[in-house]
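Re: the request from the purification team.
They wanted to know what the chain is likely to look like in 3D before they choose a buffer screen. I agreed to run a prediction and write the result into the notebook, where they can find it.
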Amino acid sequence: MQAFWAFARQRAAVAGVAALLGAGVHLVTAQSPPPRTLEGLAQMLGRATGGVVAPDEIVWETSPGFLVESLRGRNLLFLAAPAAGKPRDVYRASVRVTLAGQPIGVRQLRNLTDTPLGDDVALKLQDGKAAFATVAFGRIQSVTVLELAGTRPMDRPPGVVDRFLLAINAFQTTGSLAGVGRTDIVLDLPARSVRMTFAPPRLHVDLGDRGRALEYDTQRRTLKGADGGQAYAARAVPHVHRAKPLVLWGVDTVRAEVGPAPIAWLEHQVFGAKDTVKRTTFAVFSSSAESVLKEPVKAAKRAALLSAAKLDDGNHAWPPPPIASLWKEVQLGEGEWQPVALPFLRQLPVPPGSAKAPPYFYKTFIRPDTKRPYAKVTLVAMDMRQLELGMQAGFEDPKPLTGPPGDGHLPREAGVAERVVATFNGAFKTTHGAYGMMVDRRVLIPPVKGAATVIVSESGETALGSWPEAERIPEHITSFRQNLDPLVEDGVANPTGRYIWGWQLSGTSVMTQRTALCVTPGGHLYYAFGAEIDGPTLGKALQQAGCSYGIHLDMNPAHCGFVFTNIASLKDREFSLKLADPEMKIPPDKFVRWSPKDFFYLLVREPTRRDASGVAWITDPGVQPPPAWLPGIFRGKVSIGSVDIELQSFERGRVAFHVRAGTKEPTVHDAPAAKTALTGPDTERVLAAINLGHTTEATRYGLAFDGKPSLPLRIGYATLVIGKETPLSIHLPGRGIQLEADEEAVQLPLLAEESQLMPHAREHGAMRLRSALCIAPGDRVVIATVEHDSSDTLTTALLRVGCKRVVELDRGSSHPAFVHRTGTPTPPMASYETSVLYALGRPMLPHAQRWKPQGSRPSTKPTGYDAPAPATSSASTE
């Protein structure tokens, strides 16, 4: 002990000098406390966040008491932006003040929202509840209510360990072990403005437009319209914290503290060691014959194989063609598609008397890795004639840049859950590239140009392709998900030469579980799963399978899986589930119940058309286009007052249309001859003939075939254009028409445009059968027929089913309307004195395709969302 004091006395002088120097440096460099004003407090908070804080955007939480406030500080919420005019986030911090009220320090600073593209505005606090709105793309996207006392017990996982882990995460993100309760009022239809008023226990939300005022009960967490009725286009979504596997919790928690590099290094060591052991073991114990490759497939032969996968027999390659093995010794079942015969999978409903639909899932495996003969890739093929794809964002990821997170569960709309037949994983976390996602037209992350993308359109079509350079999201897209570069594009594996596929350190693609989604030339989707594979090899697997475009989905165990699904009751948790591959490590019910990450789901299509009009569509009694087990022509009825209008709907891709001139159509000297009849195989495919009338000297409507007018096309009329491979389109009067060489055109009177009746629709004449045509959402062609003295009821009926532009099927001759159907007492004839629109049966096109937006049809009006820009606050509080 004496030695210690001797040692301390010898160095006391040095320690004193060091202390004096430290104090001097602190006095020189320390900033003086800000003034005892809101402006001074805002400046201090701005320095703490490295941004800008406005004095009027700070609200104090309830005081914890004099002693605690003096020692630890008092919490407050405020809005901060990285720079003036940039989007703001909601922050929480603890601020210490002197007895005189002068702020002297900021502790426990936390960004509660962290949405770089979403501008949080109109922050308000009362009775422990805070509210703010989020603006993105120039519109109010949501209103959020925070419960500062902490997360409610019902919103926490039930287990003690899980609650302990949640408390650690809560402290990381909110500065409190109790966390912060949160409910998002998601606006399915974004608003132009918002005004919020607290009247405990309620929050009144006025969205400006008539009928859109809301009332949120902060205690019961219920949302209603201000008049007590159903909330219009809005829903309250409380944040419920689910239990997370310990490994995933550890990875995410540690990554948040130390950054991604240490986690990436650890993954590299683990997966690398596992791969080394597996390769060594195989080399020692396998026979040499198992490692012998076939001769490499030449590029020309590969192109021929891809071409062979296209449709040439009306079946769109279903079941898919076998996949050739790379190996001389082929394993049992390798490359051979087998139907997925699970008794619980729902069957596609077919019309009475029709043949049973084929299985919509087939499965096989291939071995694409020339260095690892044991490594398999499981492929699940999906018949997109019978299925439709949906997507959903998780309640944690992708972490949105524009507002509240996703729901994390299947849609709760009636009629959805019982049609779900499979679920499978989505793509990467936001922190791994911020690749875009939009769900039901709500953008969570804007699209990344050039990124591989899966889109779903408003008509239920699925397409895969690279995102274009355009700033806007095309109007027809309702949902999309992106990830990395394409794995395969137009049959070329890894076309960009990418070598980092979810691996950020060593410049190589780590061997682990990986998944992908691709589209074939025949119009179907394949899901790919490899238990031990890198990114480039996964691309080669898709190429080997004959895919035309593929996107890398998620990777690593516990994130990857495809689950065959049948849901009897979501409420009672009654469902049948089976993983597509035993190597998949996800819980089978992960996507059915609650998922922290985004996912896809597959629905059996409804054979009978549903639309917002409420029309009770039934299968038309005539002959249907192939395949017979899925109807493509429907019949319905709309009542306008006391008048019943008959409707017929022709589904997109089920029929091909051709115009043929009537024998009473006039001729023009030196003009190309009009086509008056169908020829060859087309005569055997006719399903319907729709009367168009013929032109007269008074009307002189134009008519064209093979891109050349037989009767001059006049600028004053609407023009129905029929292409060989494109849907029907109606061009407005007043615009010149430039036809392609394979297009036909017929001119007709315009009855409605942008849902507004034209004067011609209200003109009265003789009582007779009249008809009109429109193109409904999803490129359905709808024909309306009624006996009346004007066309206004026809037009109104077609507007009701969702059409915006309507033409009358009368070229001036006033002939009675007709729709002659094959298989009925009035079948189509070979020729008519009036011009007719023939509908010809064609093999059904699958609802999936290769997306090449640069070649898509131009829109006639502005579409989509603008790229995000700093939004001026249109929100206010009272």
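For the purification team: The first strand starts at residue 52 and ends at 60.
Please add any questions underneath this entry.
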